[in-house]
Amino acid sequence: MIQESGFPPRKVLVLAYYFPPMGLSGVQRTLKFVKYLPQFGWHPTVLTVEPRGYLARDETLLGELEGKPVEVVRTPAAGPGRLFQGKEVVGLPPERIRKLISRVSDTFFIPDNKIGWKRRAVAAAVELHRRKQFDLIFATAPPFTDFLAGMEVKARINRPLVFDYRDPWADYPFRFNATPFHKLRHVALERRALRASSHVITTNRQVKEILISRYKFLTYHDIDIIPQGFDPEDLARERAVLLASGLPPSTRMRITYAGIFWEDRVPDHFLQALHDLFQERPKLRGRIDAVFVGNFREENTRLVAHLGLQDAVKVLGYLPHGECLRNVLASDVVWMTVGDNVGSPGKTYEYIGAGKPILGLAPEGFIRSAILEAGGRVVLPTDVEGIKKALAEFYHEYEHHALKTPPPEVMARYDRVTLTGNLVRIFESLLTL
Questions:
Q1: Which residues contact 223 (CB under 8 A, 6 or more apart)?
Q2: Residue 132 has pLDDT above 50, yes or no
Q3: In angstroms, rounded to a whole number, what is the distance separating the alpha carbons of residues 14 and 298?
Q4: Which of 27-41, 69-83, 111-125, 166-180 is predicted least confidently?
Q5: Among candidates 218, 252, 275, which has minimal Cα distance to 398?
Q6: For residue 48, which of 19, 121, 219, 425 is within the disulfide window of CB 3.0 to 4.6 Å?
């Protein structure tokens, strides 16, 4: 689907509050779509905010767009980030403080504390359209303010509108609804936005089923599933860097977690299982390293000390995405945790793309199925005994050079280039209606 000579490129307006150089996993999906859309004859203009007062910053991500026909337009931010405009990066608060701030925000702002950005985004989008004449609007959320902005922009410029659900809206498991009115208001806003949309994309079947079940005007044909994925270009580059470095062979099994911990996604049960394994099999101490790439809270560090795991746990902190991938590629096993069946942690698919054995701590659902299809092991997130058993099994395979990697056909499903091609097919189908 490479653009043919003589045909002018299509133009798409991308509404994305979170975008590089902001870091963390929430920006990856949008960045990769934007990176590869020109390959299929679509030139994106990204409307986002000034990247200050955020939890992480990664300048290398914007570098992926150099030389590509992509314009990034920024407006002032909204929400709590405005309070930290003097800082590029703010520290990760203790989880109890983060929860309190989140619940206060959920009480007073609907759909989210970025609602102040809607007016700015709509005005900027309409002005951009006068100059560029977009063919289509693509809004990605959260924050769901992006969807409301997209709805108003569509009303002003009369172009097809595609919503991309990275997480569910009214059924987001970590939203605090202070009163029944709060939930009803979210549902009403979501219904209004969906009626205005031309097509909907979700990252998994569970969210698609939720939407179709609640909003009877939607059909299966109105919603497509485009999962999270991995960028083969990133992995090839970082693999080459690793090979060039000539890393000495390790005598320890290295099991890595990439990302942050929040809500029910915590390291507690994994760390307890590692402690119990060392208690049961003392000879394994000194033969397994648990590596954490990402912001590690003080309470996590205290737990490591309480369990006496300082010699086995290595915390690398937040790293640019390329360095993070390099650590994943240098690992023997990787692991992730999720407590609900609607979230789609992007790290899971980068783990698969990296060709690594995966330990998944997950309930029944699509994430469990994806990891099992990739040849990994899955136990419930709080099953300490099950985690301990899985760690022992992985170590046995490591010792015997028998670790199982994802089958190539499974890895191919999550290639970001292919996934962008699927997105383009949806875009082009809307222009022919």
A1: 199, 200, 201, 202, 208, 211, 212
A2: yes
A3: 37
A4: 69-83
A5: 252
A6: 19
Asked whether residue 263 falls in the same domain as residue 201, the answer is no
* Nearest of 146, 152, 165, 200 to residue 19 by alpha carbon: 146
Quick check: 56 and 89 in contact, CB under 8 A? yes
Q: Which residue has the higher pLDDT, 160 or 248?
A: 160
The reply to whether 281 and 396 lie within a common domain is yes
pLDDT in tens, 73-129: 999 988 665 555 556 667 777 888 888 999 999 999 999 999 999 999 999 999 999
The CA-based angle 217-220-224, given to 5 degrees, is 115
Closest CA to 271 of 297, 316, 304: 304
Give the side-chain half-sphere CA count within 13 A for 309: 29
Q: Residues with Cβ < 8 Å from 77, sequence gap 6 or more?
A: 49, 50, 52, 53, 85, 117
- The Cα-based distances of 104 to 79, 97, 187 in angstroms read 12, 11, 20
Structure tokens at 330: 């240098």
Q: CA 431 to CA 433: how far, in whole Å?
A: 6
Contacts for 358 with CB less than 8 Å, ≥ 6 apart = 333, 334, 335, 336, 348, 351, 352, 371, 374, 375, 376, 377, 406
Is 39 buried (19+), middle (13-18) or exposed (0-12) by CB count in 10 A? middle
The residue that leads in pLDDT, 344 or 353, is: 353
Residues contacting 265, CB < 8 A, separation 6+: 337, 338, 339, 345
| Domain co-membership, 110 together with 259 | no
Residue 305 and residue 214 share a domain: no
Helix 346-353 vs helix 321-329: crossing angle, to nearest 10: 50
Q: pLDDT digit string (tens) for 239-271? A: 999 988 866 667 899 999 999 898 889 999 999
Instruction: Answer yes or no: do 276 and 311 share one domain.
Output: yes
CATH of the domain at 88: 3.40.50.2000
